Amino acid sequence: MSITYKCLLPLLSIVIFAFACSSDHTHAEDGHDHGEPHTEQQEIAEESHSDTEVELTNEQIKTIGLTIGKMEELKITGFIKANGVLDLPPDEIATVTAPANGFVQSTKGEYLIGSYVKQGTVLARLEHPDYLQLQQDYLEVVAQLEFSRQEVSRQQELSGANAGVLKSLQEATSVLKRQEAQAKGLAAKLRYLGIDPEQVSSGKVFSTIGITAPISGYITNLNINQGRYVQPSEMLYEIVNNQHVHLELDVFESNISQVQEGMPISFTLPSLSSEVFAGEVRLVGRSFNMENKTVRVHGHIDGKNPNFIRGAYVEAKIWNDAATVKALPEGAVISEGGLNYIFIQEEETPDGKHFRRVSVKVGEKDNGFVAVEPLEVLPDGTRFVTDQAYYLAAQMMKGELEHEH
């Protein structure tokens, strides 16, 4: 990763020591006396400093293992960070309520939170006098229907023989239609309660009704007990089907223009494990959340899901198409106070090399490389420090400190 000045201060003493030893060794070999003035060759071998420049001898370069090379063109895959939750489609979440007011007559004790139930499973039974009254009303209307049909048939015969009055036929027909409507309405109410009108018509009477699971899934909430009076507005059970868990991600406004349908997603669930799962962007929201300055992105998860839990927090990366960028090894980049820079080689002599600091804008990182964009135009063939750049930064700091004294 790029190096910050927090790392440079401890290194500075090491660099000064290494450079001092290197400089003393050079003086000893040349047989110079400390009292003699420096020659031009010695001055080249020593460091010259400015705010952005530093000069090293070949021996110093060798001592610190400084490497110099060219900037690479690499495909570094960029990504957009996003946070969100696991969620389910509306049709995979069921709130179970009572179809009518009633008293809980019995519950299935084995169906607790975490239990798996199949669609249609009876979870509990309710009882109330109104259920019996509804069946009685239905039977009475059905009985009246039989008489009304006979009356309409009789009036039609009289009318055909010109022996009846048309008004009587119309009245009988009206009564029949009204009773048919009543019977249909009562039959629909019975079906809504889970009671079969045909069985009621055959003489069977039901004193209780069942509360059934509308979908297959796991019970995630339970609010029922025997003897309790319940109403249709109350939630008694909640059932979720986790087979279709998806991603609901929040992407910041500044990044949403880079997100497109079909882009791959990688994500983790920090509360569960460090395992990385894969998905894909399916929908990009068209509304802006003013509270957190984000846009909602809907993603599908690849393959079979482990036991994901609805509402679990996820950290995700939405991957852009790979792009070819100019890049350097991460050891070539220095970070200081929110700014980034690198070193380029400008001059070379038989005894050393001259380096200059250049400000850069950094991009994505991948496999030890970081995308780099110099903030000034550099000529073709420019040579870059590709590693140990922090030693150059430390040496530059050393020079600045010496100048202050």
From TrEMBL:
Keywords, sorted A to Z: Signal, Transport
Q: What is this protein called?
A: Efflux RND transporter periplasmic adaptor subunit
Similarity field: Belongs to the membrane fusion protein (MFP) (TC 8.A.1) family.
Q: Does the keyword Lyase apply?
A: no
Q: Which residues form the CusB-like barrel-sandwich hybrid domain?
A: 93-239
Judging by the UniProt lineage, the source's domain of life is Bacteria
Organism the protein comes from: Phaeodactylibacter luteus
Which portions of this protein are annotated as coiled-coil regions? none
Gene Ontology terms describing biological process: copper ion export; plasma membrane copper ion transport
One Pfam family in the UniProt entry: BSH_CusB
